[in-house]
Amino acid sequence: MTQKQTILSTPEQAKEAATKSSRRLRAYRMIRKILLGFILVSFINVLFSFFFLTPKMYSIHRENRDMVIKYRILQDRIRTARLQVEEIRHRDQNLYRSLFSSDTLSLQGIYQEYPAEKYLPLSGDPYSELMTSTWKEMDGLARLLYAESVSFDELQLLSRDKEQMTTAIPAIWPIDRSALKSHIGAFNPRRYHPILHRIQPHNGVDLPCTRGTLIYATGDAVVDKAYAQGYNGGFGRQIILDHGFGYKTRYAHLDKVLVERGDTIRRGQVIGHAGNTGRSTSTHLHYEVLYKGRPVNPINYFNKDLSESEYERLMENMRDTNYEKLE
């Protein structure tokens, strides 16, 4: 009985095993088809993306294109704004300041380039060059606007004290023009010295005259320094007047000093006599005009009481002279 049951169950077991094997085979085939289909779809997608833009890629491409257009428009607007500010600055320097007899405002210490490190976060991007150049233009415009703001603040203060300023700013000759003995030693911060063979700045003008020629204050001021004796760095006996509004004047190589520190001086007042003291080879007056500590050309302040023809003759009479001996 047991042997018969074993014989009868064997075909059933074989059939069940065959059924399971068939199911597994069909499952394997289905998985293989799915994998092959996925690989094929992926390949087609990559191939399509290589030659054509997908909707997402197209959207990104369009956004990048719009960004570039916006940057270009921004750059044009920055340049337009800069031209407008530069036009304002031109009127500031050549019109407004002329009304107040004020020197041009130096951008030194105001208009400075930003360090390159500021723009490092923009590097490494495909559009970094475009973004960096735009930001640099914006920063340049911001600095220029700030400089003009400083300038107009200064002009506002000058406008309040215009009457006082007109008598304070240097505006006359420090000696009688008829006292000049030869050509004037020119103002030249970049003068090339013929003996030293190097740049030797000459920050004032030299007015040759006879010993004892009267020296006049060129504007209302307070005596800042008055050296009646000594070498004083080669300037010899000298006077420095503080006119306010950022202006000072120096009168050097004097024979006599007739004022003391702290004295209140009026334009045209005699403050000393011309001489030949300090580092000087002949009698003359070394005259300087300083604006905010920076030497400026005194000749620009002489033409206030000169006609056009007289001013032209004066300029023709300027020379790079050496009235001052070497150390």
List the topology elements.
Elements: H1 2-51, H2 55-99, H3 128-160, H4 162-168, E1 184-185, E2 205-208, E3 214-216, E4 221-227, E5 237-244, E6 247-257, E7 264-265, E8 270-274, E9 284-291, E10 294-296, H5 299-302, H6 308-316, E11 318-319
Parallel strand pairs: 1-11
Antiparallel strand pairs: 2-9, 3-8, 4-5, 4-7, 5-6, 6-8, 6-9, 9-10
Helix pairs in contact: 2-3
Please explain how this structure is put together.
By secondary structure, the protein is of the alpha+beta class. The protein folds into 2 domains: 106 residues; 149 residues, Glucose Permease (Domain IIA) (Distorted Sandwich). It has 6 helices and 11 strands. Strands 2, 3, 4, 5, 6, 7, 8, 9 and 10 form a 9-stranded antiparallel β-sheet that branches. Strand 5 and strand 6 form a beta hairpin. The protein is rod-shaped, with a radius of gyration of 43 Å. The chain starts with a helix and ends in an 8-residue tail after the last strand. The N terminus is likely disordered.
Low-confidence parts lasting 5 or more residues at pLDDT below 50?
1-8
Strand content: 15-25%
Number of helices: 6
Helix content class:
40-55%
What is the C-level CATH assignment of the largest domain?
Answer: Mainly Beta
Structural class: alpha+beta
User: Compute the gyration radius: what is it?
Assistant: 43 Å
The arrangement of helices and strands along the chain is HHHHEEEEEEEEEEHHE
Mean pLDDT: 80
Strand tally is: 11
Instruction: Report the principal-axis shape.
Output: rod-shaped
User: Which fold name corresponds to the CATH topology of the largest domain?
Assistant: Glucose Permease (Domain IIA)
CATH superfamily annotation of the largest domain: Glucose Permease (Domain IIA)
Termini separation = 140 Å
Question: How many strands, what sense, and barrel or not for the largest sheet?
Answer: 9 strands, antiparallel
